[in-house]
Design a protein that fits this description.
By secondary structure, the protein is mostly helical. It has helices at 3-25, 28-47. The longest helix has 23 residues, at 3-25.
């Protein structure tokens, strides 16, 4: 696995964790922000041929 792939997968996992924390704290705005970030990261991964699958969410 190259550095880009490892990095993007780590960022996706981290963002998924952030979404979970925001949900647990009831911060709906942060959930929306992090969900948008997750969508961008998944799109970036797909654009570069990185298979993400269902890591968490």
């Amino acid at each position: 696995m190259d550095a880009f792939t490892a990095g993007i997968l780590q960022r996706i996992r981290s963002t998924e964790t952030d979404i979970d924390r925001a949900r647990e704290s009831g911060d709906d705005f942060l959930v929306e922000v992090e969900t948008a970030e997750l969508e961008d990261l998944r799109r970036l991964a797909a654009d570069h041929g990185v298979e993400v699958g269902a890591l968490h969410n």
